[in-house]
Design a protein that fits this description.
Elements: E1 3-4, E2 9-12, E3 16-22, E4 32-35, E5 39-44, E6 47-52, E7 57-67, E8 70-77, H1 93-190, E9 193-198, E10 204-209, H2 250-265, H3 284-296, H4 300-313, H5 318-330, H6 334-347, H7 356-372, H8 376-389, H9 394-411
Parallel strand pairs: 1-6
Antiparallel strand pairs: 2-3, 3-8, 4-5, 5-6, 7-8, 9-10
Helix pairs in contact: 3-4, 4-5, 5-6, 5-7, 6-7, 7-8, 8-9
């Protein structure tokens, strides 16, 4: 049975109550405090302080501080008045039990409401992040469309200018020829023989009869001939991995292709919190592209949020883990960077030519995280694995040598 604390003290104003409870030399981490608007309990075994308050208080505005062996409570009264006493003395154990149960029920309801509010806030933040990404995408799309429209307008204007210039040149070239033709026609008409023929009305008509002189013709414009037709030979191959050793790696390549196809079909089963998302927002590839754009722009936290949401939809894509590891490196979450890089390497099996670049990035990112944690031996192992994939990489060779020098300096 707990020992009840009797040597507490309290003071009050019209709006607040101050209670001081001695902790009997107990450590603060062993003190359990439970409070509602009508009930206060401080439990530090084997001692117990329990108060059935004289009037209700506002527990949201009340505070508790523990220090120097004393727990001090500042309770905000719901109604401004002076209390006759701190505790309502009630010897009815059933009544006390009812008050305790009522306090526990209130605390549970409050905790459930807080949890629901946090979940709603988290959902709103996630929705806001997606809306921000969509807004950025829309702005980028509008910018690209504007560039296209400007280029199209510029091309049309240039074409119209070229047509006018070309037409003007043609007019200037044809004008002398027209003048020459008109001059010849005038000469021929003046020399024509007039023939009289009877008309139906009885009048005499004159029919001009042109001579047989040659009329100068317009010069032919040299135009390019029509394009000659031809055939383009296209060869198709069913192979996916066009490598020199592909014939000897057929089983591994087929296994990798099968894993990739299965990964693309995987969709998270629990999407209750994502019901308000649009269809394109449920696409992991779309979210990965958004994360990549945020990462390039230097907004690493936004990129991390995009990769997190994509992984909720599909946990079988190694590129999501590898890219999230890069974000963790930038944000100095080194242990998480190691975990994501390891997960990416686990999914990048079997090792084939198609996933060589992805495996190299994962090894380098994990090795970098190890070195940042001063675990240089583990980091050197990952850099050696990366060098096996790309032995001619000069930058990788230099970084590997730097790590060797650090290890040798530490050992020396």
């Amino acid at each position: 049975m707990p020992l009840m604390v009797k040597d507490y003290s309290w003071t009050q104003t019209e709006s607040k109550v101050y209670i001081s409870v001695p902790l009997k030399g107990m450590n603060a981490k062993h003190v359990d405090i439970f409070a509602t608007d009508e009930y206060l309990k401080v439990h530090f075994p084997p001692f117990l302080f329990e108060a059935f308050l004289f009037a209700p208080v506002d527990d949201d505005k009340s505070i508790a501080k523990i220090g120097n062996g004393v727990a001090v409570f500042t309770l905000q009264k719901q109604k401004e008045e002076l209390w006759n006493q701190l505790i309502t003395y009630n010897e009815d154990r059933e009544k006390q039990k009812e008050i305790r149960q009522k306090a526990i029920l209130k605390a549970q309801e409050k905790a459930a409401a807080d949890s629901k509010a946090k979940a709603a806030q988290k959902q709103e933040e996630s929705k806001f992040a997606l809306q921000t990404m969509m807004k950025l995408e829309e702005e980028e799309r509008a910018k690209i469309q504007k560039i296209k429209n400007d280029e199209c307008k510029k091309a049309v204007n240039e074409l119209e200018t070229w047509k006018l210039e070309h037409k003007s040149k043609e007019e200037k070239a044809i004008q002398p020829q027209r003048q020459s033709i008109q001059s010849v026609r005038n000469t021929e008409i003046s020399k024509v023989e007039k023939l009289s023929v009877p008309l139906s009305s009885g009048r005499v008509g004159v029919i001009p009869q042109l001579g047989n002189k040659n009329v100068p013709k317009t010069e032919n414009v040299n135009l390019p001939g029509p394009r000659s037709c031809g055939n383009i030979k296209v060869n198709f191959t069913p192979r996916v991995f066009p490598t020199a050793l592909r014939e000897s790696r057929v089983p591994e390549e087929e296994e990798w292709l099968k894993k990739q196809a299965e990964a693309r079909r995987v969709v998270a089963a629990d999407l209750a919190e994502l019901d308000d998302l649009k269809p394109e927002e449920r696409n992991p590839d779309w979210l990965k592209e958004k994360g990549d754009k945020f990462f390039v722009a230097g907004n690493y936290q936004a990129a991390l949020n995009a990769y997190n949401l994509a992984l909720k939809l599909n946990r079988k894509l190694p590129s999501l883990y590898s890219n999230r590891a890069a974000c963790h490196l930038k944000l100095r979450n080194l242990h998480k960077a190691i975990e994501d890089s390891s997960q990416a390497l686990e999914l990048l099996t079997p090792p084939v030519a198609d996933n060589a670049a992805a495996r190299l990035k994962a090894h380098v990112r994990r090795g970098t995280a190890f070195c940042e944690l001063e675990l240089y031996v583990e980091g050197l192992q990952d850099y050696h694995a990366a060098l096996k994939i790309d032995p001619d990489n000069q930058k990788l060779q230099e970084d590997t040598q730097k790590i060797r020098d650090i290890i040798q300096g530490a050992l020396g």
